[in-house]
Amino acid sequence: RRAEFAAMRDLPSETKDGARVELMVNAGLRDDVAALDVTGADGIGLFRTEFQFLVSATMPQRERQQRLYKDVLDTAGDRPVIFRTVDIGGDKALPYMRQDEDNTEENPAMGWRALRLSLERGGLMKAQARALLEAAAGRTLYVMFPLISEPWEFDEAQALFEKQREWLADQRKKLPNAIRYGAMLEVPALAEVLDILLPKLDFLSIGTNDLTQFLFAADRAHPKLAERYDWLSIAILRFIARVVRECNAHDVPVGVCGEMGGRTLEAMALLGLGLRRLSITPASVGPVKAMIRSLNVEELQVFMTGLLKDGTVNVRDAMTQWAKDHAI
Ligand code: PEP
Ligand code: MG
């Protein structure tokens, strides 16, 4: 079916009943950006900026970061690129970074990582902010912050960026035309304070990799647990459905950027929950687009509402059957 997927490259990702789905790709290295042309994706929905840090032998200085971001933006052209600030620390420790005395972590995934680390290591975040702001001069900069647990963390991160923007303006540097700030929803607690968080945001992105590991208290990298909990479980789907409803009520665009969205049946379920933006691994764009183009999403939404209300049915089995019955 490779040829069939390739032929779909330029066809719109639209359901049979006319719902447009934004299909974006996840990336992290300069070469990943070529996937935009290969797949015909709408943009990069998650650019993991920590990759540059992880493959470097020394801390990438601001100029090096800026060069990468500029290259990525130049290649992307007028397609949006959502840059996520570094998600390092914990299990993605950098050998060249100064560690604190008591940095041995029993639970690195829940430890000193991502935005928690960035906010404390202000110099690191400032350099990244300046690199992003200068790289996106003359265009829109999309930036999002990982592993937010409470709204004040978003406030602090945004304030840091705004301060750098002001500083660059004082230096008469050319700036982005606009900045769109987003948050990743990966920590379940954040879902309880969306009424406070959402009015501050330009967009929200659900990171289903970390989110499911925290919802189920199950290490995402543990081989014994990999098959145990299903993305198509009532708990996850109800959880995501609630988040999507709240985002819609606040008029805040919401997407999914975890690996869940790259699996065809899971992607279908996400559309059934009301999502219209997925950022997925490039290899999944063809199969997911094929699914979208054969789908009547309104029918699916009615079906899934019943399924989630009932709660006793095996969702994977029921959805597999539904997909078969509807020639997906
Ligand atoms: C996620 O947690 O779902 C996510 C997209 O971020 P990462 O996989 O980089 O942790
Ligand atoms: Mg994550």
From TrEMBL:
Compartments it resides in: Cytoplasm
Highest taxon above the source species: Bacteria
Family: Belongs to the PEP-utilizing enzyme family.
Protein name: phosphoenolpyruvate--protein phosphotransferase
Annotated organism of origin: Sphingobium subterraneum
Lineage per the UniProt record: Bacteria, Pseudomonadati, Pseudomonadota, Alphaproteobacteria, Sphingomonadales
